[in-house]
Design goal:
Layout: H1 3-26, H2 33-40, H3 44-50, H4 54-76, H5 82-99, H6 101-112, H7 114-131, H8 141-165, H9 170-184, H10 189-205, E1 209-210, E2 214-215
Antiparallel strand pairs: 1-2
Helix pairs in contact: 1-2, 1-4, 4-5, 4-7, 5-6, 5-8, 5-9, 5-10, 6-8, 7-8, 8-9, 9-10
């Protein structure tokens, strides 16, 4: 990689990292372009060279969290079952929202943004097609999109509850959400029951810190 390209990538990554930490500490709405510029020690023109606006930065932050949360899940268990890891990832996300209202508000902003929704849904669809291929051989692109959209709405509803009510509904809600999620992709009921039981054990026994800021 050329030196100029390497430096450019490093500057962009620095902006995303700074923005991510600001958002995790104070939320999306309170984080401003000016704060990001000052904390990253870059010029306004440099920031706008890489990003169109604040939502564009937030989109990169979301994908940064999205990828790293998937990676963190693999540190919580020795399992290599892709369906199980997918379900565990979903539950950890919901537990994070339930435990930390700042994260619930961030997730609410994510799930409420049409622009981010479309990008993340696209990534989710590709991931689901890979994970659930043995169960969904006859599914079309529309089948995946419709199911992913419905699940998106369910998670948005749960996260809205977390914003206003906190963690009180987490234990009651997550098994149903996982069951519905996996049923949408034709995972057998017996297998779903086993995965839910294993997830319950893991989330009650283990915790991890996300980006050194929040313990889940």
């Amino acid at each position: 990689m050329k030196i100029r390209e390497k430096k450019s990538r490093e500057v962009k990554e620095k902006i995303v990292t700074v923005a991510r930490n600001l958002v995790l500490k104070q939320g999306y709405q309170k984080t401003t372009i000016r704060q990001i510029i000052e904390a990253a020690d870059v010029s306004t023109s440099t920031l706008y060279h890489f990003f169109q606006d604040k939502e564009d930065i937030f989109l990169s932050v979301v994908f940064d969290i999205y990828i790293k949360s998937i990676q963190l899940i693999h540190t919580m268990t020795n399992e290599d079952d892709a369906v199980f890891l997918y379900a565990l990832n979903r539950v950890v996300e919901l537990k994070a929202a339930a435990k930390h209202r700042i994260l619930a508000r961030i997730f609410f902003d994510v799930y409420s943004s049409w622009r981010i929704r479309q990008r993340v849904l696209q990534a989710d669809n590709e991931r689901c097609k890979f994970i659930f291929k043995p169960f969904t051989k006859k599914y079309s692109e529309e089948d995946y999109y419709v199911r992913s959209s419905a699940l998106w709405g369910m998670r948005l509803s749960f996260i809205a509850e977390c914003v206003h009510l906190g963690a009180e509904n987490f234990e009651k809600r997550w098994p149903f959400l996982v069951e519905t999620d996996l049923q949408f992709f034709n995972v057998p009921k017996a297998a779903i029951k086993i995965k839910i039981e294993k997830i319950a054990t893991i989330i009650n026994e283990k915790s991890f810190t996300i980006f050194g800021l929040l313990t889940i």
